[in-house]
Amino acid sequence: MGFLNYWPLALLALIPVIIILYLLKQKTEPHKFPSLFLWRETYRNMHSDTPWEKLKKSLLMVMQILTVIALIIALMSPYIRAKNATSDHVILVMDTSASMKTRYEGDETRLDIAIRDAVSFIERMPSDASISIIESNKDATLLLSDSSDKSLAIRKIKALEATNFTGSCEAGASMVHSMTVQWESCQVICYTDTALSGSFSGTTCTVFDVYNYCENKYVEYVGHGRNADGSLTILAKITNDSGEPLTGEANLYGDGKIIAVSAPLNIPAKSSDVVYFENISFSGSSVCVELNNAHDALPEDDRAYDIITDIKACEALLLTNRNLYLEKAIALIDGINVTKSADAASFEVLTAGKKYDLYIFDGMVPDEIPPYGNLIFIDAYDGNICAKEKEVGGIVVRTEESKLTAYLDNYKFGVSGASAVKLPLWADPFLVSRDENETYCIGAYGAENGRAVCMLGFDFHNSDLPLKLEFPILMYNIMSYCAGTGMLQTTVVNAGNSIHINSGQENVTITYPSGRSDALSSLSANFSDTGELGVYSLARVRENKPEKEYFAVNFPKSESTAIRSQSETGHNVISVDAKATGTMSLRTIIILIILGLLVAEWIVFLRGM
Amino acid sequence: MTEEKIFDENFYKKLNILRTKARMNRAAAGQSGARKSRAKGSSVEFSDFREYMLGDDIRRIDWNAYGRFDRLFVKLFNEEKEGVFRVYVDTSASMDFGEKSKAACALRIAGALSYCVLENADRLVLNAITPGGVVKYKSVTGRNAFARTLEKLENMRFDGKADTLEAIKRSEIKSAGMSIIISDFYTENLEDILRYLAYTKQEILLVQVLSREEAEPALEGTLSLIDSEDGSELRVTASGALMKTYRENYERFMSEMDRLSRKYGAKHLTVVSDEALDEIFYKILTRIGM
Lengths: 609, 290
Description:
Chain A has 609 residues and is α+β, with helices and mostly antiparallel strands. Chain A is built from 13 helices and 33 strands. In chain B, helix 5 runs parallel beside helix 6.
């Protein structure tokens, strides 16, 4: 046990004062008695009592002295080192991911519970302990660093709000590791509703699990198709993750106004179903499907949005020397009008007076790359935008996780001869090859001066890629990325995910679902402020024509499904590291002892002992 | 001592209770008197015959028997003697205490016993146990001495600390009889007193007079108790535990007195000063079998 303050020891001087007061208090009254013969005998008997019996005679005084001693100890702020107690340095990692919005009975959310517990924890900490606070969702944010200002820490904690982002405390793990190396003893407290993996191993970490079992029903996604007559078919996948069948209806909203109601739903417990809205005549920009009878713990995921877009034909210029694989793949994609040339010298003629939306250079490049339009380089290098770094042969190319490799997880193919592409700052790799020592970028994409650029460092003829089933998918992804002429390539994202906005040379104004507007800088940008759920609009003026595009941000499905079964929840407090030690204040316990002593004194006084 | 009338009208009325003869055995050791004695003497009451021996009073020879048996017999008669009662009154300061004064009670008891003694034509020797030793009054007999005896009792003063054993020794007991000691017996040498009295062939009656405050003290708070005899002080806090211990000591003190009394054939009687006079008298009669 240790003490934080030693000045209260001076108050020990009160003890002699109490004894003196007792001596002064005991003024005796003379009382004449015939003979003290029996009294002296009695007095001798009393003095032959055991020490405890002697003590009983001055019980009240002894209790008062004990009370003063206990008070002094309480003022000295005693603490002990104990398991699950606070250390000198405490890092609170607060999970503010979307699942923390899940409500307990009543309106209290998991985050509210976490905040309440964290505030209580901070209040119990020794006054000189330092506190760091990390907010963790998709990213980690350091809210407070090594501060002993408890009131500031409490304010920071109370100001926390749950986001619509995915994530858990895991995002804060690396930040925690970097902070803990500087301290000898440190305790990490995680408030989360998600089971942690081993990311906190090596630290003394205690997890306060605020998970509560609850029933959730949600709209997983919304999609649309345009019929031949121009009407729409809207589909919505609805999941019932509760223990009871989901009844009621789903409402379809178009630009915020209800336009259709589904047939009565009857989705059994723990299952999903797709609901169709057929022949919807709607000329607006966005639709939303909402459950009207969910009454669940997470209302945020009871609706999902989709953007209705008209396909605009893309004019593409292809410079290639008989690449059937490529031509066939492009032909499969709707909305692309291709002009083909096998001679790079004719490029100038073909582009005279005409701006193409997309230029595809397969094995050749013109003398001058046009300053406008999106670009695809296939084993073609201009040395500026697309440059060769190194030639490699006999490699296995693997996909990297990116929007161009969607649905192609861990896909690989062989290439007999390729060139490693020099990766510009604005580009990300999507095809790589690794040998023992190095990783080569075989495919990269990115936005260069407001236009989409995709680079492939091999000829299709030198690989088995075109022979694989996934080839059209990869080509579709590449073409979808590069063929877009608007500001957006994607129209629906999950909250927290960034969306690429190709603003070009013009200024773009973005309007959030809440109504607030913001100006985006020109050129392209990865817009990541997607915390609000709903429909965002982008507006710009291009060639004196106003343009408006929309994208929707939906609640992340992974957070809706972060509902564990009851058996997984265990206790509300789970310590993931039994070795977690720190200091625990004993002041509250001692104050309770003081109160107990005061009550006991009162009883002793009343009984006249 | 309080200025209350000790021998008042009530006292005289209650004396009628005591008009009973006390059985006296060892007490009959004094001069010839009205009390039947085991000793053979010259009274008119025939006791027995025995053969004449040289030195017998020839006037007691039964000549009729001589005529019948031709041998000399002398008649024996019970000798009648007076009983000797020594009454010791403790006049130490501790007796002058109590809402109902222990001293007044002791004097009334002494007066009542004197009445019995004198009424039975026995001899009364009144002694006052004082700090200086003993004040031995001249022995008296006969009813006429009762008034003088009460006067002596009334004139007794209660003061100081007295040594009962020393006082009794100084009273020079020369004959068998009954010694009645009226005191609170706050002494450590009670056994010595009883042993001495038994040695001097005394029938012993210990009349212990206590006040209600001593028998059942009702003290509260922290007190400085002052001994009325020597003025010494004792600081006590009248806690429940202390009062309990006092009561235990009191019971032990009484038990010890009873044990010593039985050991030396003495009779022990405890009187609380606030008890009614007739009640006290009946207690005395019952205890000593008068």
